[in-house]
């Protein structure tokens, strides 16, 4: 074996693959982009004795059909990157789904090191994986790890240090005789194209197309027609059926559950009769969302009040009335503090989303939404990135890479900015608390629902304008229900909330300081007055928003700075009006209930933050990013005007 060893690291999304990759490579990372695409590429180099290992972190993927960008990258590297071995990272608690990818890579004829990660989660769920049986069946070592805690890494390194002694897997799926015969013929006639069973099968079911080889295409068409006639079925379905049967046969022999698979499936089926019901599924999902926002307010508000009181006391302790005092009170405490007050509510939102995700319910939400999404021209899988948009639009837009064609990726990326991310939540919480104190949860729920409606309408219009291809059906595995791990949900909520706090202490702090500086200049004018620089800017633009009912220069400035990050809307009000109590009092006199509703709609829809625009540009192109800005700004303004003017005509404010 060469002194230089290349190891690919593959696995499903959320299998702990990146955690294991980071444990293997430490800080010896090189980050760039894969050739020809903007998807991030991570490589890590580790020297052990006289041997140098280069680890390549492949994009997380469920299969290797080469239909999505991530699958194509993974397949291309495994095919042409010549890795010496592939570490296949599998979520131990979801063996069947993860083992399918192992089966595909094994059929490529590559040396495989299977790693059963997150084994602690499997144990907590009553799942036992018999690695000795798996190793005996396939003739290669199966390893258990907990990558997040560094457990099992020494065993993995022992295998890697003796990689030359690891053989190829000795067991594989067996297909019906006509398929096996066709595979053998393709591998014999076209060894360069059908270089392995995997490639021969992919060519045969036409998930892998070799352009320019008419002889190969002719043979594939002939063989495919013969097989489908003999076996009376679609070729791709026949192959997939055998692969899944192989996976389930291995799981039946090597995976033991306290609650049998049959019992668990029966429980899941009984629940799904209601949760995925054609008529009940949608209302149940909406009810779950409303309950989630009710708890965000009911549980989070008392803690938010404590934080607010703490910032108020801290501000009162600052002596003097000079420039430094103004900076600390108005810039730091009032500006950034106005955002941090809502940390408890945001933590609870992230916690509840994690609970729904871990329980298996969010997969059902995507399934239920598929009927609506399909009717509106979106793939059902698009709903999953859109749900991620409730946390942050940026990773949600990056998640569209998993969609199989460019049309779905473009339409979903264009729809995601209308999903209410956590950055908008402080604005909703502030205004709902002031103007809708008896129906806070319902108002915020309505905004989230309105965002979903606008998202699918925008996608529908864009599809009719730019795309005409029919939507492919949704095919996805619905995992069995299980009791969510409160520890994992807490960890997930803590990580996401920590990102929100870090953002408040860095990027948002800079924006609030800019607001404070503009409100303090030119020297000698009253702070945050119409005579200040920021007052002049706001007063110049404010008339545009008079038809929407919030034509004050302060509201205008808040929206302008909200383009940097939506949290800055609240930070700007805090910096201009003072602490939470002063801000609440000022807003209550600057807005009516109707104009507050109009402002909330504008905040929901108008221009995504600058980071979101940048990621749209990177993922789908500058033209679409510019179009996203134009559509969102015009739609947000139009809806805000309609809400105010129609409400005014109806005598609502």
* DSSP strand count: 9
What's the story with the biggest beta sheet?
Answer: 7 strands, mixed
Number of domains: 3
Shape: elongated
Low-confidence spans: 470-475
In whole angstroms, the N-to-C terminal distance is 78 Å
Please state the CA-atom Rg, rounded to the nearest Å: 28 Å
Q: For this entry, what is the oligomeric state of its chains?
A: single chain
Residues in helices, as a percent range: 55-70%
Mean pLDDT: 85
Structure description:
The chain is an alpha/beta fold and 653 residues long. The protein is 62% helix and 8% strand. It has helices at 17-25, 69-80, 95-107, 119-124, 131-138, 153-161, 177-189, 197-204, 214-231, 235-254, 261-275, 281-316, 323-340, 343-359, 361-375, 383-388, 393-398, 406-415, 425-435, 440-466, 486-505, 507-520, 533-541, 553-562, 567-577, 580-590, 593-605, 610-620, 622-649, and strands spanning 4-11, 29-33, 40-48, 51-57, 85-91, 112-117, 127-129, 143-144, 255-257. The strands form two sheets. Strands 2-3-4-1-5-6-8 form a seven-stranded mixed sheet, with helices on both faces. Helix 18 (406-415) packs antiparallel against helix 20. The longest helix has 36 residues, at 281-316. The relative contact order is 0.07.
Topology:
Layout: E1 4-11, H1 17-25, E2 29-33, E3 40-48, E4 51-57, H2 69-80, E5 85-91, H3 95-107, E6 112-117, H4 119-124, E7 127-129, H5 131-138, E8 143-144, H6 153-161, H7 177-189, H8 197-204, H9 214-231, H10 235-254, E9 255-257, H11 261-275, H12 281-316, H13 323-340, H14 343-359, H15 361-375, H16 383-388, H17 393-398, H18 406-415, H19 425-435, H20 440-466, H21 486-505, H22 507-520, H23 533-541, H24 553-562, H25 567-577, H26 580-590, H27 593-605, H28 610-620, H29 622-649
Parallel strand pairs: 1-4, 1-5, 5-6, 6-8
Antiparallel strand pairs: 2-3, 3-4, 7-9
Helix pairs in contact: 3-10, 7-8, 7-9, 12-13, 12-14, 12-20, 13-22, 13-25, 14-21, 18-20, 19-20, 19-27, 20-27, 21-22, 22-25, 23-24, 24-25, 25-26, 27-29, 28-29
């Amino acid at each position: 074996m060469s002194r230089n060893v290349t190891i690919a690291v593959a696995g499903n999304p959320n299998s702990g693959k990146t955690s294991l990759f980071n444990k293997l490579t430490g800080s010896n990372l090189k980050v760039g982009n894969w050739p020809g695409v903007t998807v991030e590429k991570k490589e890590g180099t580790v020297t052990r004795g006289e041997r140098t290992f280069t680890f390549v972190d492949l994009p997380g993927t469920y299969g290797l059909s080469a239909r999505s960008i991530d699958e194509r990258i993974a397949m291309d590297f495994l095919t042409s990157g010549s890795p010496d071995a592939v570490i296949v990272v599998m979520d131990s608690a979801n063996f069947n789904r993860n083992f399918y990818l192992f089966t595909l890579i094994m059929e490529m004829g590559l040396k495989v090191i299977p790693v059963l990660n997150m084994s602690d989660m499997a144990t907590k769920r009553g799942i036992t994986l018999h690695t000795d049986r798996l190793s005996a069946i396939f003739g290669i070592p199966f390893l258990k790890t907990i990558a997040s805690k560094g457990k099992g890494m020494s065993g993995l390194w022992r295998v890697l240090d003796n990689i030359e002694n690891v053989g190829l897997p000795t067991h594989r799926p067996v297909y019906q005789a006509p398929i096996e015969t066709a595979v053998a013929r393709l591998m014999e006639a076209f060894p360069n194209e059908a270089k392995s069973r995997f490639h021969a099968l992919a060519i045969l079911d036409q998930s892998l197309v070799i352009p320019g080889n008419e002889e190969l295409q002719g043979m594939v068409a002939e063989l495919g027609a013969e097989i489908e006639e003999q076996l009376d079925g679609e070729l791709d379905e026949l192959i997939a059926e055998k692969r899944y049967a192989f996976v389930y046969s291995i799981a039946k022999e090597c995976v033991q559950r306290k609650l049998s698979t049959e019992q668990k499936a029966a429980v899941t089926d009984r629940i799904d009769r209601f949760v995925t019901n054609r008529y009940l599924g949608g209302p149940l999902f909406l009810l779950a969302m409303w309950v989630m926002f009710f708890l965000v307010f009911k549980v989070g508000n008392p803690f938010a009040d404590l934080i607010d009181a703490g910032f108020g006391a801290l501000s009162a302790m600052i002596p003097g009335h000079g420039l430094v005092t103004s900076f600390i009170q108005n810039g730091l405490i009032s500006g950034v503090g106005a955002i941090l007050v809502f940390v408890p509510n945001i933590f609870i939102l992230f916690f509840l989303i994690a609970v729904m995700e871990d329980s298996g319910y969010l997969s059902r939400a995507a399934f239920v939404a598929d009927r609506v999404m399909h009717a509106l021209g979106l793939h059902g899988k698009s709903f999953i990135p859109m749900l991620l948009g409730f946390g942050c639009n940026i990773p949600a837009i990056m998640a569209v890479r998993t969609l199989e064609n460019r049309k779905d990726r473009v339409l979903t990326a264009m729809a995601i900015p209308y999903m209410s991310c956590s950055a908008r939540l402080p604005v909703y919480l502030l205004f709902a608390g002031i103007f809708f104190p008896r129906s806070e949860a319902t108002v915020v729920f309505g905004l989230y629902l309105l965002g979903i409606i606008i998202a699918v309408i925008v996608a529908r219009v864009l599809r009719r304008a730019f795309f005409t291809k029919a939507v492919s059906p949704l095919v996805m595995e619905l995992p069995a229900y299980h009791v969510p791990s409160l520890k994992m949900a807490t960890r997930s909520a803590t990580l996401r909330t920590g990102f929100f706090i870090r953002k408040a202490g860095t990027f948002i702090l800079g924006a609030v300081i800019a607001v404070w500086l503009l409100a303090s200049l030119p020297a000698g004018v009253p702070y945050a007055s119409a005579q200040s620089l920021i007052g002049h800017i706001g007063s110049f633009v404010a008339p545009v928003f008079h038809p929407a009912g919030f034509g004050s220069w302060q509201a205008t400035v808040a929206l302008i700075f909200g383009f940097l990050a939506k949290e800055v809307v609240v930070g700007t009000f805090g910096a201009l009006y003072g602490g939470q109590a002063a801000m609440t009092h000022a807003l209550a006199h600057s807005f009516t209930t109707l104009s507050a509703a109009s402002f909330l709609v504008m905040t929901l829809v108008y221009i995504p933050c600058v980071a979101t625009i940048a990621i749209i540009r990177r993922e789908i192109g500058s033209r679409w990013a510019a179009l996203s800005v134009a559509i969102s700004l015009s739609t947000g303004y139009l809806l805000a005007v309609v809400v105010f003017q129609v409400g005014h005509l109806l005598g609502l404010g």
